[in-house]
User: Fold this.
Amino acid sequence: MNTATNTPTPGRFDAIVVGGGPAGLAAAYTLAAGGAHVVVIERGDWPGSKNMMGGLIFSQPTAQVIPEFWKEAPLERHVTRREMWLTTGESVLKAAYESTDFGAEPYNSFTVYRSRFDKWLAEQARAKGAVIITETLVEDLLMEGNRVVGVRTGRPQGDLEADVVILAEGVNPFLAEKAGLSRGLKAESLAIAVKEVLALPREKVEDRFNLEEGTGAAYEIVGEITNGIPGTGFIYTNRDTVSIGVGVILKDMVDRAGEAYALLERFKAQPQVRRLIQGASPREYSAHLIPEGGYRGMPKLYGNGVLVVGDAAGMVNAAFTEGANLALLSGRMAAQTVLKARDCGSFEALTLSHYGELLKKSVIMKDLKTFEKMTPFLSSHPHFFSIYPELASAVVKELLTVDSLSKADKMHLIIKLVKSQRPTRKYLKDLYDGWRAFS
Amino acid sequence: MSDEERDVEQNAGTGSRHDRLPIDNRDWTAPKHSVTAQLGLVKFKPDEDAHLSVKNKSVCRDTCRRKFCTHTCPAQVYRWEEEEKTITIAFEGCLECGTCRSGGCPYDNIEMRYPRGGFGLQYRFG
Assistant:
């Protein structure tokens, strides 16, 4: 096989990347930088035009792909404060962490608009020599026996061949299913997220969220807002907008014929949230699935002439709201694998299994393994999203309310309250289940 | 225990979306909130041909009581027409999320493709 040629004919590439998101673009960038002739095929008008997330990218993994990206990339704010809220209908219990370290290079995380960030990422890949084709849907894979040899696009004479195809098609793995790598997605390992981008003047964003110029805040909210369905809300600050959304486990929402957008309305109406977004004008509404199956929900990651990266490979750490960074790193590892395969002139599954080795040694698989039981655990313990926030709030409220009860009486009252909510054995079982799920 | 809680208890346990259906013992009600205003903020370049379709109309009419898709689709693309006893599909306003093909219809009765290249949803922020 002649893979070392430096003058490829049009229509013949070393690698085809399906999908212009962080995973695909990181793969293309790394491949092009390594001298490979690579094409990215994106169905939207530009890479990013179909893409959505809550809004955080993490600095260090991103810098592994593009060093010092923060000097050039279209970023909104660098996040210096994270907050976790437990809510009931009327109260909020908060845990916050703020650091000036997060406000200096290399930073920790940034809020971004994916429609703009991914576009920029594509420009970087193009500058390295990657070809980016837009407005083109890959409809099928070209197979020779059990080997992927290219893609069929929706364009006339739209077949493209390559030594290897990298599937970065996102959460809906149409092609990975066709290649027999994925068995399709299950509602219990997916979250459905809806989000609104709400415009506020820059000073108001900074005043209301208590931010210094240019710094940002990211809030994750658990409790009454999801109406007992396992899931979270989030609020992220951008330069002159606020991103606010809710994500819930799809199976649990379907079981109740629930509505994600109704949960978002409920969330926005919570008093402590309402005053943050008061008077803000809606700019965009969006929705997306999140593959939260973790390690157990992953498809086969490679086959003959094919690799799967990013959301298509289920690379999301739901516990820490990480997705784009796993996508970027997995794309890079897939590219490194292809460059190595190119050197030895074989793109069989055995050669591409190097990708699996790289992943296994990386933080990606270690984290996904740690949290592999999390989504089923939360799904089978929905009271973690109702009883426990209520209880935590009731206990704190009792402690903070100064009335005619002595502190000793209050402790008795609290113990009674805790016992009235659930029998002791159930608390112990929750503790045991939790320990089992995360150890 | 509320009806909803009871449903969830009965549905406890995991399995594939194909071997365990949600409890479907209540009739359709209209969605609690309309997303028409929200969808007005999204840019769409609709194709002429639908990229979404119902596989078997009798499942919607006779089997599915709650008409789950009318609630689970975040764009409210699917509407139940009570008079005609049918689901209509406003595919032009589809957010292309895939909920309908991945359990949003528990009867797995919706066929979803992506719109042709260059058509469909276009996020300005995303």
In short: Residues 3-10 of chain B form the longest helix (8 residues). Chain B touches chain A through 54 residues (CB under 8 Å). Residues 82 and 104 of chain B are 20 Å apart (CA to CA). Confidence is low (pLDDT under 50) at residues 3-18 of chain B.
